[in-house]
Amino acid sequence: MGSEIEELKQVVAQLQQQVTRLSDQEEVRKLQYKYGYYLDKCLYKEDTRVQVANLYSDHPDTCVEFLGGRYNGKEGVERLYIGRFAKAFVNGRNGPVHGFLLDHPQIQGIVDVNPAGTRAKGRFRSMMSAGTHESVKDTHPRGLVQWWEGGIYENEYIKENGVWKIFRLKYFPFWHANFEKGWSHTKPNYIPFLSTTYPDDPNGPNELCEHPMLWPDTRVVPFHYEHPVTGQQVADDDLRAPHYGEDPSTSTPPMVLSKPKSDP
User: Could you tell me which residue ranges the SnoaL-like domain spans (predicted)?
Assistant: First the structure.
């Protein structure tokens, strides 16, 4: 009887670990989805109870990577969302403005939590539809515009005081297209990469990233996870995107995901 009880205890302990891991995965997935809903409605501002920046960790290695720039720390996060996005999209207010669309569906989420249950990584896709209504073309600074955007997230998350938070958000806008001509006619560098750092640009990133990517560049955003059957990572040459029939070495170098200085 004693050995059977010990076996049951081991089974219960294993089940508890599995339940905790699955719960953590779901909490991280929900965190990313909630981020998307807040972002859709331009809920950025720092002096309100609900804002995108509050979803981020206070860890010194926290960052956001966007359009070839890296915004470091909580201060950098707020500079991007509140200084750049809020001013450009909604004239500095917290919340939407009439006639401006900025939907960011968060889909295809793959979340992996470390064995300690303290950090996680997640890959998500966004298919954004954005633009202005013709009724606000003379009052909104974007004028009359509408566009599609597809992007990949390769994010890191951290649990602080029992609460999952965004640690390092890395968003790679993969392609853009207007509604009239579609992606086949998108001009290279359709959205210019960030090129001036803070403080020269008051709303700029702390540093610039190497080898940023925009359509028609189709390099692979590296996967944080290994192949589920072989346990292998994708080879560097396979992450490149050479022109049809050309050797991979002729392509721009493969992308590399940044790591925190305090990577455990």
Answer: 21-169
Q: Are 179 and 190 in contact (CB under 8 A)?
A: no
25 within some domain: yes
Question: What residues are paired with 159 via a beta bridge?
Answer: 164
Output the domain CATH number for residue 59.
3.10.450
Q: Specify the number of domains making up the chain.
A: 1
Mean pLDDT of 178-189: 90
**Tokens matching residue 176:** 């853009």
| Bridge partners for 106 per DSSP | 126
pLDDT in tens, 78-102: 999 999 999 999 999 999 999 999 9
Question: What are the structure tokens assigned to 116, written together?
Answer: 């300690």
Nearest Cα neighbor of 175 from 132, 205, 146, 214 is 214
Neighbouring C-alpha atoms within 13 Å toward the C-beta of 135? 5
Contact 63, 73 (CB under 8 A): yes
